[in-house]
Every structure is written in structure tokens, then in C-alpha cells.
Amino acid sequence: MGTNPIRVVMVDDYQILLDALSLQLNADSGIELVATATNGDDGLRIILDMKPDIAILDVDLPGRGSFDVANELVTRQKQTKLLFLTGYLSDVFIEHALRLRAHGFLLKGEPCHFLFDAVKRIANGEVVFSKVIEERLRYNAEKNRYELRSENLLSALTGRQLEVLRHLATGQSVKEVAREMHLSEKSIDSHKYRIMHKLGIHDRVKLARFAIREGLTQP
């Protein structure tokens, strides 16, 4: 990176967290927080425009989901490295981050200095996890990538299906989910059918309970 600061964009729906981290990140001469956003749609637009070295994405974003955003970035802007930050300790989130070849997955319970150190290590090409997450992983030397130690039923879902499931599990209707994710009702209905088929669950209440039990959403 030379003497240039590491350029970072952070996307999180809590403005107070963004404000607090902005002050601390910019106090570090090696890191520059160039922009923030509070939802996935604005975050994607800003990241594509600003072309930062690292994008820090909260897993739980309103509107366009973080994995949807990340998938776009992997396709359109490979030079931006991905760091996921979350309050949810869920294997399926970790697995989807690994599929996207994210360079980091941290829990929000970590101290600030750990996050700042992770940003610098990721900029240098390392992959960084919170310790409790790293304990759930193994390194596959043949594939040159990290993998979960245990398989999960949710592994069969795509990133978009995972986002749809999370919205449905909160009690939102198909119409509400379609509006929030900027998709057609027909598309959401199709995703819902495929999700239920893959999971072998054909009742909305049971689906919501399953999502809560798997740590996808809060009860």
C-alpha cells in the first residue's frame, strides 16, 4: 500500500455506530474512511463509485442484502476486498461469506483495535476472522480456502434465497419483501417456494422458527 492510507467504505444500518467508528478510524493515519452508507442500495452505489480498498459490510442490511451487494462487487469490482461485520454468530452467514471469498468475518463484540488491525492485515492480503469464528473453520489446502467444519441444511440456499428467508422470517408478506428487495412479487414467491422445498418446510410459522433457531434473525 506504500504510504497511502487504506481507503475504506463502511455500510451499517446504525448511524451511531458509523459516526463512532468514523472518528476512530480516521484518527488512524493508516486508514481513511472515505464514505459510509446505512443500507445496501446506497452502499453498493458508493462502493462502485469510490472504489475503496476494503468494504466493511454489516450482514444485516435493510433493502438490498449484504450478500447481494457482495456478489455484485465480486462480479464488478474485484479489487475491493470484503470484510463482513455482524452481531449474528450463524454458520450459514459464515459459509456465504466464504463462498464470496471474503477477506474477513468479524463479530461486533470485538474491540475497535481488533477491527483496525484486521483492516490493515486484509489490505496486506491476509484473511481475518474473530477467534470464535475461526474455531468453526478448517483450511482446505487443496482448494486453498477456508471451509466450515460441519455442514448446514441452509447451505443449499443461494445468497438471495437466504436474504428472502430472513425477511419472511420476520413476518413480512411477499409484497413487503418484494418492495424492500426491489424484486417482483412473482420472483419472491418463486424464491419462497424453492426455499421451502430445499428445507422441507411448508409452513410459514415453522419456517420462521427454523430461521430463528439457526440464528438468521432475532425472535
Structural notes for this entry:
With 219 residues, the protein is an alpha/beta fold. It has two domains: 6-148, Response regulator (Rossmann fold, 3-Layer(aba) Sandwich), CATH 3.40.50; 153-213, Winged helix-like DNA-binding domain superfamily/Winged helix DNA-binding domain (Arc Repressor Mutant, subunit A). It has ten helices and eight strands. The strands form two sheets. It has a six-stranded parallel β-sheet, sandwiched between helices. A two-stranded antiparallel ribbon has the order 7-8. Strand 7 and strand 8 (145-148) form a beta hairpin. The radius of gyration is 17 Å and the shape is globular.
Full CATH superfamily name of the largest domain: Response regulator
The strand count comes to: 8
Query: If you average the pLDDT, what whole number results?
Result: 90
Order of helices and strands: EHEHEHEHEHEHEEHHHH
Provide the structure class.
alpha/beta
- The CATH topology assignment of the largest domain is Rossmann fold
Question: Which segments are poorly predicted (pLDDT under 50) over 5 or more consecutive residues?
Answer: none
Question: Taking Cα atoms only, what radius of gyration do you get, to the nearest Å?
Answer: 17 Å
Overall domain count: 2
Major sheet: order of its strands?
2-1-3-4-5-6
**CATH class division of the largest domain:** Alpha Beta
Distance between the termini: 43 Å
Apparent shape: globular
Hey, roughly how much beta strand do the residues contain? 15-25%
CATH level-two architecture of the largest domain: 3-Layer(aba) Sandwich
- Percentage of residues assigned to helices: 40-55%
Main sheet characteristics: 6 strands, parallel
Number of helices: 10
